[in-house]
Structure formats: C-alpha cells, structure tokens
Write a structure and sequence with these properties.
single chain, 16 strands, globular, 2 helices
C-alpha cells in the first residue's frame, strides 16, 4: 500500500471516529426523580407522577432518616380540587399524619382549607401562574400568619423572596430575605426543582403547578432581621446536556456541599 493510499485511509478512519464520538443533543421527557446526596450518602429522594404533561398528580419526598411525605391531588375537569398529604415518620416516637385540604380558586387567589384538625390554612396569590404571595395561617382562629412575598423582573425572573411573621401583639416582623443573581441561560429545568430556593413549602408549589421564575439563578444572598448585611447563602452549579437538560447539580450552602441527580422519562 503506497503512502498516498495510507493517508486517505487514515483520514477516513479519523472521520468515522469523530462521527461516533459526536453524540447528538439528548432529549428527555418529564422529570420523574431527584436524588440528593451529602458526602456520597443519599439522604433524600423526590419522585413525581403526572396526570398529564407537566401536571403533577403525586409527589413523594423520602427523607431517608426522617419521614416520607406523600402529596396526592384530586382533579375535576383537569383542575386540582383536593390534596391529601400523608406523613409517614420513621421514628416511632412521632405519630404519622394525614392532612386533607379542599382547594378553592377566586380570581388570582388559591385557598387551601384543611378538612382535618391537624392542617393549616394556606392562601396563595398569583399573577399568570407566578407566585406573588404565600401565606400560612396558624393560631386557634387563624389570627397569626407567616407571609412569603416574591418579587420578579419584568420578564418574571426571580429577584427576591422575603418572609414576614406576626406575633401576639399583631405586629409584623421581618424574618429574612433572599435575593438571587447569576442566572444560568439555556437550562431546561423548571426552577421549582432548583435547590437554590429555600421557601416555606416548595412541595406544595410544585404539586399545584405554580411558577416561581422564568430563569434559574445560581447564587443567592441572605439578609435577616437581626443582620442587615447580605451574605452568600447558596450557590449551585449545573451539569447540563447539549439541549440544556440538567442531569446533575452541586449546591454549596453553609460550608457544606450537596449533590443532586435528575432523572427523566426516556
């Protein structure tokens, strides 16, 4: 075989290898599971089941050493009208709970009213499906509440989440505020699954198919009522496919690191 022929054979082999290595952009279906690890030890699994595309029917959160929380929705004509939360504690000293809610809608307001004695009334105010305000009531006659307010940019990218509480005197107390920045472009992950958020009940927000942001921040700052200075609270880095689907993520918070693995329908 002469040198010219050897050259063309080598080029052909290189092209073939290059074609094999160039994997096209991977496509996925709905997100069905999130696993959370700390120091290579799995300590939480979140599993999702759907009524139809992007409409969650059941959400199961298994915190390995604590409890399994199962959220199950009842739908009428495609609208969620009831919710049952079952809490199965792994420690025998805790009593398992079942909390049932009736869900009502009035313009841009969603009200969850417990029909069991062990639940708290919740009111969620929204604009175009994005949360503006999340209020949890407590006390014998719902006289106290904790309120979480969300602010966003004109294109609905999250700016801040602030929490206020009431005390027996009726005063409103600022508890904390998180602000967000360093948005990651081209990420095909619903921000409700972004672990950078630390809110009152993201599980409830998720099953009600509500929205928190159009974009995914990767950095949050925290300001508390006792400390007006902001400090870095959480950072997250995503491992994404060519098409932007998040397969893994690593979050750093409070000097600790947490790894996340995201699994989708094939």
């Amino acid at each position: 075989m002469n040198k010219t022929l050897l050259f063309f054979v080598a080029v052909a082999l290189m092209c073939a290898c290059s074609d094999d290595d160039a994997e096209p952009g991977k496509e996925y279906g709905e997100l069905i599971q999130i696993e959370r690890y700390s120091r290579d030890t799995k300590w939480q699994t979140t599993q999702l089941e759907y009524l139809q595309a992007a409409q969650v029917q059941k959400l199961t959160v298994n915190t390995i050493t604590a409890a399994e929380n199962k959220y199950e929705l009842t739908y009428e004509n495609g609208i969620a009208t009831g919710l049952q939360l079952t809490i199965d504690y792994y420690q025998p000293s805790y009593t398992d709970q079942t909390i049932v809610y009736r869900i009502a809608y009035d313009a841009n307001e969603i009200t969850l009213t417990p029909t069991t004695a062990n639940g708290n009334k919740v009111i969620i105010r929204t604009t175009d499906g994005f949360i503006d305000c999340f209020v949890v009531f407590y006390g014998e006659n719902d006289e106290y509440f904790t309120e979480e307010t969300f602010t966003r940019t004109s294109n609905n990218a999250i700016e801040s989440v602030s929490v206020y509480d009431t005390n027996p005197s009726g005063s409103t107390i600022f508890v904390w505020q998180h602000t967000f920045s360093d948005f990651k472009p081209n990420v095909n992950l619903n921000p409700v699954y972004n672990p950078i958020f630390d809110v009152l009940d993201m599980n409830l927000i998720t099953v009600l198919n509500l929205k928190i942001s159009t974009e995914n921040p990767t950095l949050s700052y925290r300001r508390t009522g006792t400390d007006p200075q902001k400090s870095t609270y959480r950072t997250i880095a995503f491992d994404v496919t060519t098409n932007g689907f998040v397969e893994k993520g690593t979050m750093n918070a409070n000097a600790s690191s947490h790894d996340y693995v995201f699994t989708y329908e094939e």
